[in-house]
Amino acid sequence: MPIFTARFASAEEQEQWDEKVVSNPLGGNLLQSEAFAEVKAQYGWAVRFLVLESAEYTSYNLVLEKSFPFFGKLWYLTKGPDLAAVEHLPAALDAIRKLSSAQKLKVFAVKIEPDFLDGDAARSLLLASGLRKMPNLQPNDSTVLIDTTAEPEQILRSLSSRGRNAVRRAQREGVEVERVEPNEENYRIMYDLRAQTLAGKSSAGSREYAYYQKFWSGFVARGQGRLYFVREEGRVVVGAFVINYGRKGTYKDGGSSAKRARYGDSHLVQWVALNDLKNLPEPIVEYDLCGTPPADRIKDASHPYYGLGLFKTSFNKTVTDFVGCWDLPVDGFRYRLWSTVGERLARWINARRTGQEFY
């Protein structure tokens, strides 16, 4: 079992951050990226670049940090730490504790959400490591994944029949998917479509337009994002923003109009985007449809992602559940106060001052 040490990345490593992250054991995650760090730095988070080293491998992880009077610092490892196995987590967390103590960083808690598959064994190990299960923050802690390593026709045949038939019908009916210019006008259209879809298919909330504009433009500027539209009679009726980050593709944001004539247009957008990312010089090997209810609630109409789950499981009926979000108390006394009253107070103050989501 590896023993880890923890340190902050050098200036040179930070300049090569995305390259370093996608070399991680699990291939990195777009929520550990330079583009995402840039957005969060404009929304109340300090950004740190954490390196976990062992004799076997090195892992690069984005840390978002907030400071609170009396409590100290909260660290949030979005979709991290990225480790080769869940069994390596206790040693990695011990290294983080030692770093905080040695540098007197006053970290009272670390929030993690590693992409390890959920299950009794994984949960038992996390609990034994002193972690506390918290409500999930990221939509794709439960999601639908598509293996993109095969040839296109083989991938199409591997899809669930509903998704496969929808793609082929849209193709027969002449639906055209266009990759559009990522500009202000099209970002506004994309944002409005997304809001319409959330209103009709999900009870989940949405951030302000400026957040998405910064998010989308940051990935586009790095060659990691692209925007797709489908039109009917000149009107945009389907939109999707997808990201290629390392060997993973992600359907990050999407939306559609309830009033449209052709069946399968949303499915064809995903099919076109998937194949575009598969044909990159460094092709993706996996496409993440990014967010469904957990497997045991996929048919629960009360779940906020129920409507989105219906669409995404038409491609693949298998829902992948990851372990989700967990807290590591570093200072037990302060963490107990944080979990009983501090976090609620901090969220209330943040909402009053900024009107933005806390995390």
TrEMBL record:
Highest taxon in the source lineage: Bacteria
Record lineage: Bacteria, Bacillati, Actinomycetota, Actinomycetes, Micrococcales
Protein name: Lipid II:glycine glycyltransferase (Peptidoglycan interpeptide bridge formation enzyme)
Keyword Secreted: no
Gene3D superfamilies (alphabetical): 3.40.630.30
Species annotation: Arthrobacter russicus
Domain spans labelled BioF2-like acetyltransferase: 164-291
UniProt signal peptide: none
Stored SUPFAM superfamilies: Acyl-CoA N-acyltransferases (Nat)
Family: Belongs to the FemABX family.
InterPro entries xref list: Acyl_CoA_acyltransferase, BioF2-like_GNAT_dom, FEMABX, PG_Glycine_Bridge_Synth
Keyword vocabulary terms for this entry: Acyltransferase, Cell shape, Cell wall biogenesis/degradation, Peptidoglycan synthesis, Transferase
Pfam families reported in the protein's UniProt record: Acetyltransf_6
Claim: Cell wall biogenesis/degradation is one of the keywords in the record: yes
